[in-house]
Amino acid sequence: MVFLAPLLLFGLLAALIPIAIHLIRRERPPKVVFGSIRFLKNTPKKLILFQHIQQWVLLLLRALLISLLVFAFARPLLNQSLAKLLDADPQSAVLVVDATLSMRYPGVFDEAIDEAHEFLQRLGPGDEAAIVVLDERATVLIDFTDERAALMRVLDTLEEPSFGSTNLRSGLALADEMLAAASFENRSITLISDFQTTAVDELDGSWKLARGVAFTPVDVGVEATQNLTVADVRVPSTLVEGMQASPVLARIRSTGTLPIERAQATLLVDGDIVERIDVELTDVSEKVVEFAHALTGSGEQGIEIRVQGDDFVSDNSRFAAVTIEPKVDVLVVNGEASSDWFDDEAHWFELASGGGVTGPFSVTSTVPNLLTPELIQGSEVVVLLNVGALGLQQARELVDFVRSGGGLLVAPGDQAAEVTAPLDSILPGSLAGSQRLRAGDYRVIADLDRRHPLFTGLPVEWSTRFQRVWTLTPKEDAVTLMRFDDATPALLETRAGEGRVLLTAMPLDSEWGDFPLQPLYLPFVHETLDYLAARPSEPSRYLVGDSGVANFREVGLSRLASEMQDQRGGGGQTRLVAINADINESSLASASVESVFDAIINPENASLAPREVRTAQRMIELEGPQRLWWWVLSLILLLLLAETLVSNRTYR
Amino acid sequence: MPTKTETEASKSKAPTEGAANFLDPSILAGIDNLELRARVAVEGFLSGLHRSPHRGFSVEFNDYRHYQRGDDLRHVDWKLYARSDKLYIKQYEDETNTRCMIALDTSASMTYASGGMSKLDYGISVASALAYFIMRQRDAVGLITFDDKLQEFLPARCRQPHLMHLLRLLTQVSPGDQTNAASPLSDLAATLTKKSLVLLISDLLQGEEETIATLRNLRAMGHDVIVLHVMDDAELNFTFDESSEFIDSETREAFITTPASVRTAYLENVNAYLAECKKQCQRAGVDYCLLNTADPIDSALSAYLSKRARGF
Questions:
Q1: Is the overall model pTM greater than 0.90, yes or no?
Q2: Which domain holds residue A155?
Q3: Sorting pLDDT into bands at 50, 70 and 90, what band is A535?
Q4: By the CB < 8 Å criterion, does B275 face chain A?
Q5: CA distance linking residue A107 with residue A112, whole number of Å
């Protein structure tokens, strides 16, 4: 026999109460001064003895009454096999602990750990459990085990939350996947989290837990919170020497449930404080501040914007990495140099590229005769403007330059009747002759590849008119980037080795058209040179948990191996990158756990109650057929009757 | 089937129901004035026997008293009125040939009362009523009170102030200790020079055999004896329910018992005792009358009247 409420058995001590009262009080019966007791003294003594026996019977009856009541309230279960079955209903449980940045809010994670300990304490003898930690990604802290001590030890290794962002689905999905291979059918997931609204909203209902998996949310979030965070930092990741520096912008935001009126934003460059700005947030929850400090110099610089004024400091800084690069070296080979600027082929091009003074390009002009290997190797981009046949050596140098990663733009003019043989091998097409249109007739750009990086920054509508253009015959591996309105190619591209080659059918001077006079000319030249220079533009900002390049676990500035350098065979080169936390982690508003239920609970689980409820139901089911209550109550009634009779006979 | 005690009680019912109302102990107990209590009892008793107890004054002058409204003018002493200018009524002492001695037991056991009136109060009421009644019969009446010895002694007289003296003595009775009726009755016997009627009012709970033996001696001396055996209703029927510690009122001896378990044995003992008392009295030629304090006191008067009618 087992008892479903064994603690009530302590009530058996109450059975001692009647005996204690009998022994303690032992009050004598009332005194009656009688005329004479001579007639009483002759009554048989056995009656008194019988009364004493009746008193003890009465005591026993009363003690038995109390004992039976206690016995009934302790809910005995007579069928031992069923009791064992009830006791031996082990479960497989996965405890998912949210250890993301928002859990760093003061007191929250400690409460989460306490809740986790309580969860482990509630595990039954045969239960198995696993622990999943949700930091920058969901990881299994310990797989299923029934050793509670081991679970406790592993749990104690969780010292503090990470800087990662909350992805409830990943943690729940991992737990669900683990439960699919669990030992017992009784399965459950317990999620201890602050249930940020931003994280809960991502559970859009498209994914559900497997059928039969019970879910228990434990909300440890704080209702009243104060928090300041740097929501964004706006500064170009790459700057060019000599260019006018952009201002550093930062967005300061109050994300707690309680407002904060004042804050202070600080700009740090390479760890040094360079500027402080007081921020008023009286009427708004977000404000953009602009730092006057100009980023100068060269190389990589680490930017940190720090905000002060709240207790939750883990999200008070946001970082950015800025690289100030040297100008792009451009070598312009002018095939038809002239002393008159309007006839000079390179005049317009140098004008558009900044002439090496104010723009991002450092332009060097030469003529074909002076084109030396040193000039070629010292450049990143070589532009052939109306250049005719080159020397064999010059052509070979150019081919080697391109194949090793250099850029080549070929804009033929009236001088370019033929192309030197070695150079022909890297060009995307061949010149099939030029066509001069009749007066009043012209060609326009009718189509271009908008998805190409060259055109993403350029407008779609082109109004340039060409009276004379080259007819290009593209090679098989060439890509036609632009076409004239007669469908003939206007711009071809090909890759030769590591380098890029562009061949245009339109001249870049004003001799065959009005292209240099159009507003598009300057951006076209800039984009073309940028594209051909092909400088590595690797991302400089990452979020904690971005595992594509490195496993960043903390916010701050870090160095990362440069892939571009590796590709070029440099090896060992690193670049400065900024690692920030997901801005959603700073939003401390909590969602209701009911919404989590609605989003993830399998609809077929509607009939499945939590384990405690199922256990209680099973208890009732097992208790019901016994009808022990009825028997005990009947016995109590009989005992009450007997007690009444005996007490009346004893004391009346 | 009625018990023996109930049968005795039914025999001692008042002659009429109307008279019984005036003889009810509960009514008499509410009357503090003992004379008034005796008068009410006797008048109530006699109203069921005679048309009127007043038959005129005797011829032997006894005393004066002030005239009261309603007095017969024939008894006004006009000579005295002429001298004093005040109206006086002449009172006369009747001749008697009967002497009655009332012996009242005042021992501690007589103080027991299960209801409103104790056995002693009941006995005092009976004694006062008998004295009043006897005086109305122009007989002499005396009184002794006793517990284990003689307490008060008032010789028999038939004059009116004597009745007041007797009633005052009854009023001042205080309960004594243990009972020993034999000695006081022997002392009484020594004082009785003429044939007398001795009325013993007692519960006879201590030494009843010696008491009855003494009464037998009185009978041998030519006196008539009536035993008015006063018992409380609880003593007769043991009407207790709750377990109690019963304490003997005289010996202070205690006995704890449950009434329900001993009632039968108790009643057997009591009835045997009563039967023995009655039997011994009859054997000694003593009239025996059992009085239940819950019953009217006319049984006592009836017993006396019955004896008086037989012309003892």
A1: no
A2: 86-223+590-608
A3: confident
A4: no
A5: 9
